[in-house]
Amino acid sequence: MQQDMTTGSVARHILDFTIPIAIGNVLQQVYNMTDTAIVGHALGPQALAAVGSTGTIMFLVTGFAQGMTNGFAVLTSQRFGAGDNEGVRRSVASGLALSLLCTVGLTVGFSVFMRKMLTMMHTPDDIYDMAYIYILIIALGIVTTILYNLFSGFLRAVGNSRAPLVFLIISATLNTILDLWMIIGLHMGVAGAAWATVISQGVSAFLCLAFLLKKVRMLIPLRGEWRPKREHVRFQMTMGLLMAMQYGITAIGTMIMQGAINLFGSTAVAAFTAASKIQSIVTQPMPAIGTTMANFCGQNWGKHTLSRIKKGVRTATGMMVVYSVLAALLLKCMLPTMMGLFFSRGTDIQSLMPWAETYIFLSMLFFIPLSMIFICRNSLEGCGYATLTVISGIVELAARWVMATIATHTHSYLLSVAGDPAAWLAAGIYTTVALLVLIKHLEKEPLAI
Q1: Which of 68, 38, 36, 42 is nearest to 55 (CA)?
Q2: What is the pLDDT of residue 447?
């Protein structure tokens, strides 16, 4: 059930841990794409554009939740690597308490400010109401996102990346069934797509909890361990907020970029939505190896094995350079075919292709910097240096803001979609340099860890 990554083959540990996460991430994107495709086929391009226009807000909602819960689980991986079983259980107790507390604040906050966010993003009038209904339901169901990410984060912290994959497969299948039933059978429109997502996420959270209670008892606090330690709460809250901020800052940058794209109308938004979904599927091994590095570095940080952390970073980098090249080639060849999956036969795909190709062909040139963001940023987080990753989010935000500002004034779609590549290049350089500098510092002062 557990995997100790502080001994044995580094490459084997990284591959064994990454592959289930990558499969899970791809499935997550596939069922998000299925959600989008069903909307596009059953409800038309406007409904697809409505769902797509909320993508960056959805990333803000789910990304904030994911960043926060991943931050809470960093302490769990460090205590597991150090062989401190009581510390592992206490970190679970405090992480759960903090998650439930944050759920209330996030649900209220996102619900209250949702209309303002859609307005700030220049959401087209013809899709505004549908977009609001969809994203409001997602925000109201954020508790399911938080609990699933928290429980799966605890499992990964002790080296188990396979159980969350199983639950995600079940959730993805359920989501597709509910999509078809609620959108086509019950005629619930985009609201049906949103409820299908929330319900399926809730099922995966429940299955994770049941698995923890039955199979991974080492993560269940004993009597007397439910009262959180002050130092644990301080560390987890700091890491959780910093990592959530990093996701939040990145999401704000993508919202600015989406706002610039929205100015080109619902056709451009629909094409960009489909293209970005396709690109996201192809690049899912990158965040997967990032999750691996967070847990790999967390465990080895707890055991104070800096040399193994360095070897892990080198191994992951080599793997991702090769994959980035292959992913770019695959995307270039498969784009026309995959675009057709999102729209009904009556849709003029050729009118959408120029918008989609502009974004895809520009993005794939910067896949290597994108992969370095995940490797270096998550390695820093696993070692407890989340402050440095927040700065990477600010770098991304600045790059997207500059590109969106210029694009808005010049009315250039090319510059609007260049926000992602610019952000990847800037943040990729920053995170790589930040990790190298930190490693050099720790080599001179090893007692710092």
Answers
A1: 36
A2: 43
Model pLDDT, residue 376: 94
pLDDT for the residue 446: 53
Calculate the CA 117 to chain-centre distance: 20
The pTM is what? 0.76
CB 344 within 8 A of CB 45: no
With residue 252 as reference, give the H or E element that holds it: helix 230-262
Read off the amino acid at residue 314: R
Using the CB atoms, write b or e for 267-284: b if 16+ within 10 Å.
ebbbbbbbbbbbbbbbbb
User: What does the pLDDT look like over 163-174, one tens digit per residue?
Assistant: 888 888 888 888
CB-count exposure of residue 31 (10 Å: 0-12, 13-18, 19+): buried
Q: Quote the tokens at residue 342.
A: 């999102």
DSSP sequence for 53-107: HTHHHHHHHHHHHHHHHHHHHHHHHHHHHTT-HHHHHHHHHHHHHHHHHHHHHHH
State how far the Cα of 368 lies from the Cα of 364, in Å rounded to an integer. Answer: 9
Low-confidence ranges of the chain (pLDDT < 70): 1-2, 31-33, 35, 342-348, 445-449
Helix (H, G, I), strand (E, B) or coil at 218: helix
Q: Token pair for residue 300?
A: 């080895």
241: closest CA among 56, 65, 427?
A: 65
Whole-number Å distance between alpha carbons of 300 and 309:
7
Task: Say what the alpha-carbon torsion angle 368, 407, 252, 48 is, to the nearest 10 degrees.
Answer: -90
Whole-Å CA distances, 360 to 67, 323, 399, 408, 411: 26, 17, 18, 20, 19
CB atoms within 10 A of CB 100: 13
Extract the tokens encoding 403.
Answer: 């590109």
Distance between CA atoms of residues 355 and 100, nearest Å: 42
CA torsion, points 348, 350, 352, 354, in degrees to nearest 10? Answer: -170
Give the C-alpha separation, 98 to 240, whole Å: 9
Query: Token digits for 373?
Result: 């963001």
pLDDT (0 to 100) of residue 31: 65
- Count of beta carbons in the 10 Å neighbourhood of residue 401: 18
pLDDT number for residue 326: 93
